[in-house]
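User: Okay, second chain of the day. Same drill as before: sequence in, structure tokens out.
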Amino acid sequence: MDTLTEIQAIQDTLKSIRCRIIPTSFEADDSALSGFPLHPLSRWDSCAQALSELNPHGVMMRLPLFWQLEVLLWYASRSVRAPVFLNDPENMPVGAAALQLGGMDTVVTEQRDASTFADFVKKENGELPEKWIIVHRAQDRWDMPASLSGCKIAQEVHLFPGLPILSQCAVLMGERSDIPRFHITRGNRYEYDSKVFETASKDEIPSFRLNIPPITTSEVCSCGDSVYTQTI
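Assistant: Same drill. Structure tokens below.
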């Protein structure tokens, strides 16, 4: 069963399942938009892990509000006792001011926004915030803006907004490479031969076997987990 079939099969029962629902597309006008269930107590654990390494004073979220990640980011930020500031991605002047005057020192945004916002902030403030969490859309190229090369960066790959399939440990976060490397997010499985990502089941939430873009494994990280890169 492919990803689309699996997701469509559960749409009629979503309303009777106690769950958090995230969109299956990054775009609100996607004609194939559906809902995907997460356990109601699910958290953005990979983000919390990244924040624990970055040790932020304040976290600014520039992810589209349609993605509905505000609550999950709030829990992740609370775990490191940092406040969250929501910045509409289209309102870069307010974002730059929050970085300069509002105590925010860490930016959570997507790869498509990072370069444009970094250029704007550098022009307005004269310097960039040191810490970033970058979300890549799974279907995009997972390239990093050259302008962030001197920053501390944690990267993730999401299949849907709020469903990270790949993330980085402290070792991979510390690498300086044009080709980012990742681990499969904790609690999930990846079948390399069939290229299927399998989520864990919990209570009323079933396990899903989802097709993801091709990834290549090369070695085992010093943390003990397998390392993956995007197959180009």
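DSSP finds six helices and 14 strands in the chain.

User: Thanks, on to the next one.
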